């Protein structure tokens, strides 16, 4: 990991804010969900991946991470056990994100409030990008459900395509736009190198987490994980598959660093700050994954061949 560890000084206050927000919308009324939040530490992840943002932005980032953990776990459970029941859940989210429809569930109410927070802090263009990327994340969960319930082997390419959506990282990037003192220019935002950096940063961040979650996902019968995709493709042991995934992560980070050096002279201070937001997710997922209780048993428990 070429990027040094950093954390946000407001992490403790934001952690308390996350707990209160989840309680307010009833998302931790279920003891299993409350335990999951303790084991995933969403405010810690927010602190590690957003070390330089102000407290207001950090609180929104932490709320969004917590919400996505709850939503993702619920969608995974429903999608595996009752795929048909997943459609109303995802449709509610799309209706909120696309049309501003009123919610009908506690998860929908939390998403509506999160969207309000984003709209209050972001410009209309930034908020529209947040809506768009958040809808892509929701659609990714549907693709994941199809992959999990389909008997045909899943190729590595299909796996990584779905993983880039279910990662849910890109919805955070408009918040890093909003964190800057000035807006990025259109030339900066839509620059081909900037678009490539967004793709690389998402993949590097989520694939890094996949290295640490592979044992957990294998036990649960998961399919959408980079290491498990290599294991299926190569017919090798999980440790060997993780080694192959590490090489892919390292190559992705190396390309990201090279492109950063290429485009930095052309960027405004706002553009540089936005790219630092991408760096934060690569760095943050690494340091968070190494210490979070969610993956702690993977380091000592044996995995299936």
From TrEMBL:
InterPro entries: Amorph_synthase, Isoprenoid_synthase_dom_sf. This is Sesquiterpene cyclase. It comes from Streptomyces chromofuscus.
């Amino acid at each position: 990991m070429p990027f040094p560890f950093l954390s946000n000084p407001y992490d403790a206050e934001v952690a308390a804010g996350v707990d209160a927000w989840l309680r307010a919308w009833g998302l931790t009324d279920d003891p299993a969900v409350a335990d999951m939040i303790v084991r995933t530490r969403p405010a810690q992840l927010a602190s590690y991946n957003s070390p330089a943002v102000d407290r207001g932005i950090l609180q929104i980032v932490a709320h969004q991470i917590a919400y996505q953990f709850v939503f993702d776990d619920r969608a995974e459970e429903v999608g595996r056990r009752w795929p048909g029941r997943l459609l109303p859940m995802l449709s509610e989210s799309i209706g909120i994100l696309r049309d501003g429809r009123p919610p009908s569930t506690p998860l929908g109410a939390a998403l509506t409030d999160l969207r309000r927070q984003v709209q209050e802090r972001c410009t209309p263009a930034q908020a529209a990008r947040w809506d768009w990327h958040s809808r892509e994340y929701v659609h990714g969960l549907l693709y994941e459900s199809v992959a999990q319930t389909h008997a045909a082997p899943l190729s590595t390419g299909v796996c990584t395509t779905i993983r880039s959506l279910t990662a849910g990282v890109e919805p955070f990037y408009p918040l890093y736009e909003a964190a800057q003192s000035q807006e990025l220019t259109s030339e900066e935002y839509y620059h081909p190198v900037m678009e490539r950096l967004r793709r690389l940063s998402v993949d590097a961040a989520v694939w890094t987490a996949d290295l640490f979650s592979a044992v957990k996902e294998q036990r649960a019968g998961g399919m959408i994980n980079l290491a498990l995709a290599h294991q299926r493709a190569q017919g090798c042991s999980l440790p060997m598959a993780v080694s192959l995934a590490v090489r892919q992560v390292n190559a992705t980070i190396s390309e990201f660093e090279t492109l950063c050096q290429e485009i930095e002279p052309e960027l405004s201070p706002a553009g540089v700050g936005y790219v630092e937001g991408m760096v934060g997710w690569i760095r943050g997922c690494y340091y968070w994954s190494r210490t979070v209780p969610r993956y702690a048993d993977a380091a000592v428990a044996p995995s299936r061949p």
